[in-house]
Amino acid sequence: MPRSWLVPVDPVRKYCFQIQGTDGVEVYFSRPVPVRGAVCHP
C-alpha cells in the first residue's frame, strides 16, 4: 500500500532527500538527492 508524507521544510535551508523502503526482509535506500545546492553524503 503506497504512502505519502508531507514534510515541513525551511524555505532557506539546504536539504538532502532520500527514500527508504523495505520488502519486509531487506531495507533499500535511494541515492541522496541535493536540494538547493546541498552537499549530500551517502
TrEMBL record:
UniProt protein name:
Uncharacterized protein
